[in-house]
């Protein structure tokens, strides 16, 4: 597996892009604004999109993706997400009011878009690449994902607050190599983090203390303008875990 980070910011501005990662050439993990930097030929190769949840910073480019390349492809793009998330995007995005329902275009027998529900703990096997949803704790139904090549595994938490159930599952991954975990707010914004079910540096340290396996830790979803402050607090609170800030263009090969 090869994963390229297209976006990992909690917002936009300058070179900041919101959450999305490209797995090999054909799979997106979330579809934030970073997807817009792909070339047309790269967009045409995307067969699968795995969404963590329904917030716009994680799916903003999905409507544009299917609109742009749907007619250029011989098969639909499959969107994988929990049943709750799929229902939200059907009701509020692909509803003919915000955007056309591409699961019925050009017709229901050969649509541009296909929805496939996932269930936490049940892997999706794409030619030997296993992608397993993990339950997390956010303000809307949400999951993280384990991406497992067989040789090694990467965990992406997506958006989450404190979640014991997440770490119980992560600690079962024998070939764990990487953990990409969010820290959206600084310690001074703890109240906002709690209300929105995100992590802040003190809570990040408490969550990482639940990890019983060795892994390389990367921090994502930093808010624009607060990255330096938040990472300084992360280093102070969780430096024992040697966390690194995720950046656009970062590549993981495993």
Structure commentary:
There is one protein chain. Helix 7 packs parallel to helix 8. The protein is built from 8 helices and 14 strands. The longest helix is centred in the C-terminal third of the chain and has 12 residues. The N and C termini lie close together (about 5 Å). It has a single domain, classed as Ribonuclease Z/Hydroxyacylglutathione hydrolase-like (Metallo-beta-lactamase, Chain A, 4-Layer Sandwich), CATH 3.60.15.10. It is globular. The model has no long low-confidence stretch (mean pLDDT about 100). It is of the alpha/beta class and about 250 residues long. The strands form 2 sheets. Strands 6-5-4-3-2-1-14 form a 7-stranded mixed sheet.
Short description:
The protein is of the alpha/beta class and about 250 residues long.
Keywords, separated by commas or semicolons:
single chain; 254 residues; alpha/beta; Metallo-beta-lactamase, Chain A; seven-stranded mixed sheet; 8 helices
Specify the number of helices: 8
Instruction: Give the biggest beta sheet.
Output: 7 strands, mixed
Average pLDDT level: 98
Element order, helices and strands? EEEHEHHEHEEEEEHEHHEHEE
- Give the structural class: alpha/beta
Content of β-strand: 25-35%
Instruction: Say how many strands there are.
Output: 14
The radius of gyration over CA amounts to 18 Å
CATH superfamily: Ribonuclease Z/Hydroxyacylglutathione hydrolase-like
CATH-defined topology = Metallo-beta-lactamase, Chain A
What strand order characterises the main sheet?
A: 6-5-4-3-2-1-14
Fraction of helical residues: 10-25%
Anisotropy-based shape: globular
* Low-pLDDT residue intervals, each spanning 5 or more residues: none
CATH architecture: 4-Layer Sandwich
> Tell me, what is the CATH class?
Alpha Beta
Number of domains: 1
Distance between the termini: 5 Å
